[in-house]
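re: ur question from earlier - yeah i can do the single chain one, its not a big deal. heres the input i used so u can compare w yours
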Amino acid sequence: MIPVDPHREIIDPRQLVREDGREALAELVARESGYIFQLRPLKDLCQSLKSGMPLLAEGERGGGKTEMVDALAYSCNRPLFELQGMDDLKLRDILFEWDDQGQNSFVVQAVASGELSLQEARDQQWRKEFLNLGEVLKAYDYLASTGITPIVKLDEFEKLPQACQAFFYQLFTDGHASIPRLAENNGQIGVRRNEEKPIVILTSNNQHIVHPPLRSRCVYTKVRLPTDLEEMRILHSRVPHAPAHLMTQVIKVVRYIRIMMPTVRDKPGLRESIALLRALLADNQTVLTAEIIDDYLGFIARGADDLTNLELGLPRLERAAQTPDLVIDQMIQEVFCERVIRLREAA
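and the output i got, formated as tokens:
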């Protein structure tokens, strides 16, 4: 779990949306984290928040699904529980497992000390103190115990096998999980009402199947890849101190790789563009020559073959960075003008 920052205000995104609308949430997240929502995911996220249902966000890699969850948690200063989808996850990773060793030690010691009979000790070994909670059920128990609503990120959820996806059905529907033999809380861990549920967001890259019974328990949204103008706005928001000429060169280089270099299979996404721009800015780079680009290829390449092909294409990348492009140049000017207007309005 990533805890809250005690020095920052804690904001309830559900209350914010109900009282001030989705624009207030979008403005908060943009101001605090630099993340800019697409309209469709923003609408669906707000419906998820108001209904208490999880949000299932699907889309290609690089669209900003994972960053959306992180930005929401950071901006609202909410505890963040995370589970990465993998083929080998078990019940214990998601919900719970009994501490067999602890239970056996308790029974032996209780009987040996004469405090309990064997039957009494066996009955008491099924208390919550001998239950190890998985990351997801831990978030529900955290809410029940503290009253603080956490955010749960289930990243690349589609990688979970169908048997594991079924572990979430009761949690998403009822807000709690039934634990066989648990002697407390009527055998249940979690909460009761929709408005008390954790804020749960599932992300999926469409590589595998998220099964229909689980989809039916979620609000659905599609996160598409950003347009050129949207990507520029995001870059400017995430790296606000980068000058226009440097940001323009980065966009031209990345766009050239995506469109004109088919031998580069794993295309750089928005995350790579942000990392590259930040690194160049930190080193006070101003002009992207082939030599300079070569120094920063590690921020763009995602495999050995792609790195080799990028090295072979360095002269072309330099030309791309330095060649005027009326469309890109005009969009960059528009993005920077928008920021100036916002700053004037704020003042």
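The radius of gyration is 25 Å. not sure if urs matches, ping me
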